[in-house]
């Protein structure tokens, strides 16, 4: 739930990160579509999402350290974790600048979290971002950040934190609308600055975090449509983007800035206290990395060739692979036997986009079908797919919402037919599969099926509670009856490890006796938190 206290305490920081990640997930494709500066590579929204995802994970780790649940971290711990997470996970030009903005804010908010500290934090953030960019350009995210800080600074002395955040948001939004008139490449394309739009989205999440109400408008009124012929709108530039983390002293980084500035453009160096994130566009990627070696210890080195497919080393890639997220080891083995590359979803912890990208790389294929198998992974999976596409892999994301839909899609996968035909067939199979699961109620609560008590067995169909029962067999039969009332040809049962085989026998008999010509298949290895998963095709 959104934070409603007029204060930037640790809970508000956590809420801000969560809301910003969710908002960037919704806006990612639209922001990618208007990315024409500094390079028209269509990844600004994705890079911002990945940067905020890293910040969010760092904040969640701080909260997880308070295992008793009776206390929460202090604000200083939360904002420092947010800034550090953004720094180590920053992607692209826009993500690196956002990391510096968050670092600038953290330096002030660590000392206090009232309205006055928020004003000063926004001012510090805008100044720090400009200092990090070798050659600041107006009409970019830097302009939007400066306008946000100025608008916050004009609020009354007795204004609360929510009023300061709202003023910053409105100032940023107004500045964003003006960016096409400040930067020629934006004017030619008829779009606002992509990084600036992302910052407006992040500030909108801040407003909601401290006030409990989302802004009326989430982005500028300038249309954010897919830009035709993006490359025609862009200006020429170096061939490579080079990014790495660097452990180095302040003096060594000053010399590095001078060296890299002579090698290329779009130079952004952010960080401090011995840890830096370096971003630059160059023609000689090796020289940029060598400069980092001379300055200190570079690691997590990422080199992207603009407009070129990623070349996988050592071995020739296979033509096509499937990457699937699975909730348990049993299904992991099943999917591996079918030839899929798997990512395990641990109890209470969904995989991050980096894990999905790593799995796509491990698949080592030119074409990849990605099956997330969870509705909450839709934005994360989309960001991972976009990142993999930037590395030259053709990725199709099928929005499966449950493991049984993934099983159905994998069952019709045929790598010998065309990629498009295969994706259509797999999508159709997943879409034709209704899904359900049984879960144990943890507490008394209201549901769509009525009031449940702690220990009740809940039958969820397509994500909503439809049946409340006292035991697993009875609830499972009721769920099956509801699902099969609309017809079906195949029932898939996935049993949890602790569920006896007799349950599968009982349910198979129930289907056989009540529904003619409906087959049943049974698998082991469902998630620990759900005794039974059900699919009906």
Mind explaining what this structure looks like?
This protein is 49% helix and 18% strand. The chain has 537 residues and is of the alpha/beta class. The strands form 4 sheets. Strands 13-12-9-16-14-15 form a 6-stranded mixed beta sheet, with helices on both faces. The chain has a 4-stranded antiparallel beta sheet with strand order 2-3-1-4, sandwiched between helices. β2 and β3 form a beta hairpin. α18 runs parallel beside α19 (501-514). The protein is globular and about 75 Å long. Mean pLDDT is 86; it is low at 1-5, 220-234 and 308-315.
- Major sheet strand order: 13-12-9-16-14-15
Low-confidence stretches: 1-5, 220-234, 308-315
Rg: 25 Å
Overall geometric form: globular
Structural category is: alpha/beta
What value does the average pLDDT take? Answer: 86
In helices, the fraction of residues equals: 40-55%
| Distance from first to last alpha carbon | 36 Å
Q: Work out the helix count.
A: 19
């Amino acid at each position: 739930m959104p934070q409603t206290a007029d204060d930037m305490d640790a809970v508000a920081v956590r809420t801000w990160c969560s809301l910003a990640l969710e908002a960037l997930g919704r806006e990612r494709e639209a922001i990618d579509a208007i990315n024409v500066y500094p390079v028209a590579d269509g990844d600004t929204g994705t890079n911002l999402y990945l940067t905020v995802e890293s910040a969010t994970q760092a904040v969640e780790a701080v909260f997880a350290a308070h295992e008793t649940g009776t206390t929460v971290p202090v604000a200083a711990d939360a904002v420092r974790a947010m800034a550090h997470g953004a720094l180590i996970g920053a992607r692209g030009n826009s993500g690196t600048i956002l990391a510096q903005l968050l670092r600038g804010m953290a330096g002030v908010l660590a000392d206090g979290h009232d309205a006055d500290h928020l004003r000063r934090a926004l001012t510090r953030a805008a100044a720090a971002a400009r200092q990090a960019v070798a050659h600041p350009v107006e009409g970019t995210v830097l302009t939007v950040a400066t306008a946000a800080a100025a608008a916050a600074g004009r609020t009354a002395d007795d204004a609360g934190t929510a009023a300061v955040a709202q003023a910053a948001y409105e100032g940023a939004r107004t500045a964003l609308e003006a960016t096409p008139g400040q930067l020629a490449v934006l004017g030619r394309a008829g779009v606002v600055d992509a990084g600036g739009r992302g910052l407006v989205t992040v500030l909108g999440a801040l407003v909601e975090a401290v006030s409990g109400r989302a802004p009326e408008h989430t982005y500028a009124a300038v249309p954010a449509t897919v830009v035709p012929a993006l490359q025609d709108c862009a200006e020429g530039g170096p061939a490579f983007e080079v990014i790495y983390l660097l452990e180095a002293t302040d003096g060594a980084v000053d010399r590095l800035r001078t060296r890299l500035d002579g090698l290329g453009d779009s130079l952004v160096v952010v960080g401090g206290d011995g840890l830096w994130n370096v971003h630059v566009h160059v023609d000689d990627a090796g020289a940029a990395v060598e400069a980092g070696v001379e300055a200190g210890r570079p690691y997590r080195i990422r080199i992207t060739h603009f407009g070129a497919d990623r070349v996988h080393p050592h071995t020739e890639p296979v033509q096509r692979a499937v990457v699937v997220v699975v909730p348990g080891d049993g299904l992991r083995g099943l999917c591996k036997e079918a030839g899929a590359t798997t990512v395990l979803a641990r109890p209470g912890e969904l995989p991050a986009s980096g894990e999905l990208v790593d799995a796509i790389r491990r698949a080592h294929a030119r074409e990849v079908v990605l099956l997330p198998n969870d509705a909450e992974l839709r934005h994360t999976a989309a960001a991972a797919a976009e990142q993999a596409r930037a590395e030259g892999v053709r990725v199709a994301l099928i929005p499966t919402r449950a493991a049984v839909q993934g099983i159905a899609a994998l069952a019709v996968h045929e790598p010998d037919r065309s990629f498009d035909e295969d994706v259509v067939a797999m999508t159709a199979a997943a879409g034709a599969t209704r899904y359900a699961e049984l879960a144990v109620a943890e507490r008394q609560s209201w549901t769509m099926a009525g009031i449940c008590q702690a220990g009740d067995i809940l039958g969820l169909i397509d994500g909503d509670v439809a049946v409340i029962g006292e035991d697993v067999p009875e609830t499972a039969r009721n769920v099956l009856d509801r699902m099969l009332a609309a017809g079906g040809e195949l029932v898939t049962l996935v049993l949890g490890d602790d569920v006896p085989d007799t349950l599968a026998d009982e349910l198979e008999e129930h289907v056989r006796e009540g529904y003619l010509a409906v087959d049943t298949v049974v698998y082991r290895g469902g998630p620990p938190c759900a005794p039974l998963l059900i699919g009906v095709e």
